[in-house]
Every structure is written in structure tokens, then in C-alpha cells.
Amino acid sequence: MNIFRREIVKIFPKTNTNLICGYGSGFFQQNSKVEEKMIDMMICVNDSLSWHKENIQQNHQHYSGLMKLFGPKLISTLQRCGEKVYFNTGSQFLGHSIKYGVIDSNSFKDDLLLWKNMYISGRFHKPIEMLYSTPQIKNLDLHQFNVDKPVNIQKCDLSFAIHRNRFMALSTAILMLSIEKENTFLFRNIFQRISNLSYGGDVRTYFAEDTKKVEKIINGSYSKFVDIYQPYFKILSDTLPNDIFIDEDKHTITIIKSSKLNEYLKYTIEPILQELYTKKSFIPQFNKILQKRVFWSSISQAIKCSITVKPSISIRYIIRKMNKFMNSQ
């Protein structure tokens, strides 16, 4: 896999590319059993039309015959529909089957900061591996992240959007757990809640996805979750030293419920959901809104893939997903 990680980025255009990252169980093994899994990647670009023009020349075999026939204009138009991502699925590289999505930078930031589709944002709540990025986001430097900075989607950089998205997920998870549970809970509880944000409502969970997916994600990538969220835990505890206490040895967080804590957490969650917080039915309504977003983005992606993916690859992919669902029952 190390050779794959190094070589895969070389095949894609770099002119308009902001970042290329890997995610999912293909990159992060979720159990001790060695399996041949499709490797998922996401590519964020500045100009989708130009990027697809160049990529069709470099990697024409990645596109279905229909998409090559209609060309990059239709491809970039389809990309702008629904969850704003265009996927090429099932191509082979160094013995691995790959699937990569392409999204433009404004749509990328839009979903990270507003959770419009919970598609990109949900994937970036969980561990990713940055394979290529521009110097501005190479290290995702937290020293440059200011949670109190006003959000301007057009002007903010990708690094800020990635950090803000994760911080919102953490605040949301703590807020929900503080309503449902005691004042002390495990990191694991938080990571499970974060992972569930983008799975509730996904149409695949009804017939074509592992029913224990979230549990396997946490078990297989627990240390990576800790690495991701520990800096944000510190921001919370430094900001609210009398309200939030982190025990890094026991991997627990203790909160002292107060109006100050509630206001801060409310301020740092997704903007539309802030309006729900004062209502007694906050959690059911919150879940309903997110599930609706996830449901429609997953439906949109399924429809788009039925058009853009080669039929033979699409059938194999669906069968593999359905087998995972059946085996997890």
C-alpha cells in the first residue's frame, strides 16, 4: 500500500487540484482479516470542467463509454447535481480497485461548513489520509484555526473549512450526549456519535451496507480518531476550563452543565441546527433533519452512479455491498 499511496497521486492532473485524500476501510483496515477492498479517494479541484478535460486525456479508461461520448461538459454538469460529487468507480491501479470522487472547492467548503448534504462533511468527520495537497493545507495547521472566526464560505481556505467541520461534529456530539447521558462519557461514545451523524438516513443502510459499519469504523480506527479530535478537545477545555475536563489517560470527558457551556456549544454547531437547540425535542428534530439530508444525497449519488458508472462495475459493486449487508445480519 505504501507504493500505491506514493504512485496513485501521479496519475491525476495537478493544475487545478487542491487535495487528494483516501478514506474508508480500503485505507484503514477495520479488523485483522485481510480483505481486498475498493480504495476510496476524494479529489477537490478549482475548475471541474478543466480538470475533467485533462483527466479524460490522462485516464480515459476511468470513464464509462457514455461519459466519454458526451464529454467533460456533461460530466461537470452532472457533478454539480445533488451532493456535487462525480465518481469514477472500479478502475484498476497497481492491483487495487479504486473509486474516486471529484468536487469543486466551493461545493467542498459549502458542505463542510453548512452540512448541506452531509456527504463530504461526513467523510471528513472520520479519519482520512492526505495523499496530495497544496502547501496551504498540507499540514492542516491548527495554530491557524480560530473557532470564533466568522465563516465566509467564499473567502475562507480549505484548511479552515476542514477544521471547522470537525469542530462542529465534536460540539454536536458532546451537546447531544450531554442531553442524553451523565456528565461523564468516553471518547468512544463521542466518536460513535460523530460517525453516526452521516450514516443515519443513508439509503444503503436499508439493503446494501454493513449494519455494524460504525462499530467497525471505531474499532478499526480508534487511535486515528483520538489523533484527529484530541487537539479539538484541548481547544474546548482551554476555552471552558471550568466546564469541560478531559482525562486523556482514561479517555473520558466530563462536563459541568452550565449556560456558558450550552451557549458555546450551540454557537459552534451547524448554523441551521442552532435554531432547534432551544426546543425540547431538539435531538429527534436534529436527527430528522440530518437523516433527510443524508437520505437525499445518497439517493442522488445512487442515481448519478447508475448513469456514469460502467454497468458491469455497477452490478459488481452493488452485489458486494449487498453481501456485506447480509453477512452483517
Would you write up a description of this structure?
The chain has 329 residues and is an alpha+beta fold. It has one domain (1-327). It has 13 helices and eight strands. It has helices at residues 2-8, 48-58, 65-70, 72-79, 105-114, 120-125, 158-180, 187-196, 213-239, 259-267, 271-274, 282-308, 311-327, and strands spanning 17-23, 39-45, 86-93, 96-104, 128-133, 184-186, 244-247, 252-255. The protein has a five-stranded mixed beta sheet. It has a three-stranded antiparallel beta sheet with strand order 6-8-7. Helix 5 (105-114) runs parallel beside helix 7 (158-180). The chain is globular, with a radius of gyration of 20 Å. The model has no long low-confidence stretch (mean pLDDT 83). Its cofactor is Mg(2+). This is Phosphatidate cytidylyltransferase, mitochondrial. One of its GO terms (molecular function) is phosphatidate cytidylyltransferase activity. It is a peripheral membrane protein. It is found in: Mitochondrion inner membrane.
